[in-house]
Specification:
196 residues, mainly beta, 13-stranded antiparallel sheet, two-stranded antiparallel ribbon, 0% helix
Length: 196
């Protein structure tokens, strides 16, 4: 970089990872010699490290951050289970992730005439240590996020519509309205209409 910082990309995602061939940074160093080292998990079915996008550890001069993932035969294999940091040999959990396996997903473009969508994994909540409550995520039957509930009760709601490109051949989904409430009550809700 022009400021003298150097990033080294020594992780290359390998088959059968969906992002095979993508490179990821493994070392970040600034001009003062501060160094952050990142290690990634191996691709599914391979041994060693640095062949997937799944972060295993991030190490700086004081702390090691560790990511743990669900493994087979869990339906959530490859998804983050929790993140912790370790200092002087003592580890503390910072965040824990929860998921739901969803089937019978309906295409938003056609209800019964489309080929059924494959099952999906939806992130349902993230619990941060010390927070008063988790972040909670709600989805519609097309697996589109419709609500984010924040730890102190506030929320974002999302409304979608189907749009078509100028030639009419391709369809896309777009957020048309976002509602926000700071305290979780409808009277405090503010609506933002989004036009495309």
């Amino acid at each position: 970089f022009t400021n003298g910082s150097v990033w080294t990309f020594n992780c290359v995602s390998r088959y059968p990872e969906q992002d095979a061939g993508t490179m990821y940074p493994t070392q970040l160093e600034d001009t003062n010699g501060n160094l952050i080292t990142i290690t990634y998990q191996s691709a599914f079915g391979l041994s060693g490290t640095n062949s997937s996008a799944r972060i295993q550890t991030v190490v700086d001069s004081l702390t090691t951050y560790q990511w743990s993932y669900f493994t087979s035969p869990s339906p959530y294999a490859g998804h983050v289970y929790y993140v912790q940091h370790c200092v002087s040999g003592q580890c503390y959990t910072d965040a824990q992730f929860s998921y739901a396996a969803v089937t019978n997903i309906v295409s938003p473009f056609c209800s019964s005439s489309c080929t059924p969508k494959p099952p999906a994994i939806e992130l349902t909540q993230i619990t941060f240590t010390g927070a008063p409550a988790p972040y909670v995520f709600t989805y519609d039957n097309s697996a589109e996020i419709t609500r984010v509930l924040f730890p102190r009760g506030g929320y974002f709601n999302y409304t979608y519509q189907t749009d078509s490109f100028s030639n009419g051949a391709n369809l896309t989904r777009a957020v048309t309205m976002r509602a926000m409430s700071a305290d979780g009550t409808q009277p405090s809700e503010q609506n933002y209409t989004i036009s495309h």
